[in-house]
Description:
mainly alpha; 434 Repressor (Amino-terminal Domain); 2 domains; two-stranded antiparallel sheet; 10 helices; 4 strands
Amino acid sequence: MINYAPFWNTLKRKGISQYWLISNHDLSSATLDSFRKNKDVTLHTLHHICWILDCDISDMVEFVKENGIPTPIDETIVPDPTQHRMVLAKADKQIDRTSETSKAQTSSYEPKMRPEPVISYAPFWDTLKKSGISQYQLIHTYKISSATLNSIRKNRNLTLNTIEKLCQILDCTISDMVEFTKAA
C-alpha cells in the first residue's frame, strides 16, 4: 500500500504549507488530494516535488505491506479538506496585513524553472540481480509486462502502483528501485 506519511512529515519539518506549493509551484490540489488519500501518482510528479522540497524520494513515499500492520499516520500532519481551507484563509489574511515592502518582495517572487525529471532505474537492476529473479520470471510468473521492463530499461516514467508491485515481488523499498539524478 502506498503511504505518503513521509511527504507530510517532510512538509512539516521544512515548514512548507500546501498553499505555498499550490501558489508558487503550480502544484494542483488534485495532486495533494492524491497524497491525502494515498493514491497513485507518477514518478515525474514525485520528482517535481522532490526538486521543490530538495529531498529524496524516501522523504516522500513509503510502501506498507498489505498483510502487515500499516504505519499509523499522525493526524496532525495529514491535513483534511477543512484544514486546507483554513491554510488558504490564513494566507489571504496575511497578505492583507503585509506592508508595502513585503508586498513588493512577494510580487517579485519567481519560481525556479522545473527541470525535466531524470529518473534512473539502475538500483532496480542491482536489486533484481541480488534477488535471483530473472526478467523471464517477472514476465511469466509475476505478470509484469515486457513493456514495463522496456520502460525501466529506457528510464521512462512509471506509476507508483507499478513500482509498488515490483517492490513487493523483490521485497525491497522504493530506494532500491529508483533514484532521481541531476540533469546534465
